[in-house]
Amino acid sequence: MTAPLTPSQPPPNDPDWPPPPPPLLGPAGDPITAAEVVQGIVVTIASAVAGALLGLLWLWQAPHVKLISDGKGVYLRDSEGEAAIGADGTFVLLALAFGAAAAVLVFLLRRKGGVPLVLGLAAGGVLGSLLAWWLGSSLGPTANVVAHAKQVGPNVTFDAPLELNMAAAAMLAWPLAATVVHLALTALLGPRDPEPEGPWGP
């Protein structure tokens, strides 16, 4: 005599099948709420808009490469200068400062932290860096070097376009600084989960 076979799956008309998917959980195991998602979006937008200020500061602070023309070609005024590297370094240092400041501000406003805030800091940092790069390059000297050289005339020094030679690395400075600083502040100064009570009390 054999035992009756049980179906491996509930019938299609079973209201409890299939089971609902598990909710998205934050770092503390709490479900991610719609309010936290909205906060992450706000952080993304605010960080992206702040990229305009980064672009203006980069344009103001970055050293400019000097060019000169002899009427036939355009040459570096100082072939051994480090202005091109200085422009990249200025952008990276400013981006690191903006990322750290954004992380501190977000932590002070929302000490609990959460995945949406971290994602918002990272995405906003990338968007802000892209905006800063575009704005600084657009407001700086023209990219048409030949036309600029003809305009100023031969043997006259003029500024080269403001460029990023290590653009990919520079774009990561802000989001990396923002996420690392925010995670560090949350781990060191964030609210702690209550300890479970044992048989002799907490």
From TrEMBL:
It comes from the Bacteria. Keywords: Membrane, Transmembrane, Transmembrane helix. Residues 1-29 are annotated as: Disordered. The chain crosses the membrane at residues 41-60, 91-109, 116-135, 166-189. Residues 7-25 have a biased composition (Pro residues). The keyword Metal-binding does not apply. This is ABC transporter permease. It comes from Streptomyces gulbargensis.
